[in-house]
Amino acid sequence: WRNVWELGGWAGMLGKQKKEQKLPDWRNLWRVVVVFVLLGLAAYGGIFFFLRGATDPEQESLYDVAQTAVVILGVVTVGGAAAIQYRKQRVLEQASEMERDTKCSERLTKAIEHLGHDTNVSIRIGAVYELKRLAEDSAKDREDITKILSAFVRMGIEPLSSPQKPTANGTVTLPRPGSDIFIAADILSLLFEEYQCRASLDRLYAEHVDLSRISLNGAYLREAVLNGGGFDCAKLNEANLRETELNKAELNRAELIGAELNGAKLNWAELNWAELNETKLIGAELNWAELNEAKLNKAKLNWAKLIGAKLMGAELNGAELIGAELIGAELNGTELNDVDLNWADLRRTTSLTIEQLETVLLDKNTKLDPNLSRHFFPEHPPTTPQPPEPLQSSEPSV
Q1: What local confidence, expressed as pLDDT, does residue 12 receive?
Q2: From residue 270, how far is each of 234, 251, 312, 319 by CA, in Å?
Q3: In the prediction, which pLDDT does 17 show?
Q4: How many Å apart are CA 298 and CA 290, to the nearest integer?
Q5: CA nearest neighbour of 246 among 215, 262, 224
Q6: Sign of torsion, CA 50 51 56 57?
Q7: Which of 15, 371, 386, 393 has its CA 20 to 30 A from that of 226?
Q8: What confidence tens digit (pLDDT) does each residue in 218-256 have?
Q9: Which pTM does this prediction carry?
Q10: How far apart are the first and last CA of the chain?
Q11: Model confidence over 123-178: pLDDT tens digits?
Q12: Which residues contact 124 (CB under 8 A, 6 or more apart)?
């Protein structure tokens, strides 16, 4: 009974105990349970032996009562043993969890210290990988680790932002972060792909920084200022770049599948061969941008501005361009199957053919050149056109 009492007191004070306290002696407790079981069996055997041949009603009644009592005793004994075992398991699990949390906290503290090492980049890289392993081991620390790595990436990029200054021979060399920053970005992408933890880089200020081949899938980059940056071959799938400034940025062969760029500014940007399938570009500005052979299948470009944009050989199958402005855009060889062009402005486009428009969705509000408008809307002949103003190819304001 002393052991039973000790167990109850120990479990009740688990949250207040120190590490040096010991667990109760469970072997003595199980001895008590075994004694109870043996006594119950002995009592049942004795009653059965003495009263097995009883014929007197009083003896039979006594036999039934004794038998019931023994059964109840057995049930209580087994139930008590099960409850004790469950309580023991819970205590051990809580103790193990406390020990694991302590070790994770120590690992996290040590990794953060190494992450702030000023001179040795290998120590910082080791800290990044330690945070990755900790995120895999501890689910409750993943969000904190994501925030820590996001801050690390931000601190490694923002100090490099500077006005574009050409060298003596006229070339421009963009500053590039160290390898530890790119490894941290890769880990952030991995955390998003496996655990849906998104990097937080909203309002990142990094103009004219070389971030080519960086991987930030699923990252929050809302309202960031990334003008003139180098993002060739970057991976920004499912990233949120709402209202981000990417004017004059280089995103050739970049991956932005499923990304959100609503209201983003990509004037004069280079997106040749970029992957933009199912990307949201509602209200985005892509004036004079280069999107040659880019893939924009099922993308949403409603009310987007693509004045003077180059879309030669691009794929826009199933895309939505309701109310989009494509004045003066180059559409030579552009795939436009099942594209919604209601209310779109396609005047003075280059190389736009009747065959291309046969598979798109048009209505009388779609603005076309007179020869195309007569073909598709003979019942609504165009009014006498006014002399067109020359397209201004001057650089838009940033």
Answers
A1: 41
A2: 13, 6, 13, 20
A3: 42
A4: 19
A5: 224
A6: positive
A7: 393
A8: 999 999 999 999 999 999 999 999 999 999 999 999 999
A9: 0.73
A10: 81
A11: 999 999 999 999 998 888 999 999 999 999 999 999 998 876 655 566 678 999 99
A12: 114, 115, 117, 180
Which residue type does 377 have? F
Letter for the amino acid at 234? A
Q: Per the structure block, which two tokens stand in for 203?
A: 């309002």
Residue position matching structure tokens 């469970």: 26
- Residue at token pair 């470009």: 301
Cα gap 52→71, rounded to integer Å: 17
Measured distance CA(300)–CA(295) in Å, rounded:
12
- SS3 call for 42: helix
Residue 246 near residue 226 (C-beta atoms within 8 A): yes
Residue with tokens 């097995």: 52
Nearest to 147 by CA among 168, 133, 159, 131: 131
Q: Which residues of 86-103 are buried (b: 16+ CB within 10 A; e: fewer)?
A: eebeebeeeeeeeeeeee
Length of the chain: 398
Tokens representing 239 are 């990233």
Residue with tokens 């999107």, as numbered in its chain: 291
* Amino acid, single-letter form, for residue 69: A
DSSP character at residue 14:
G
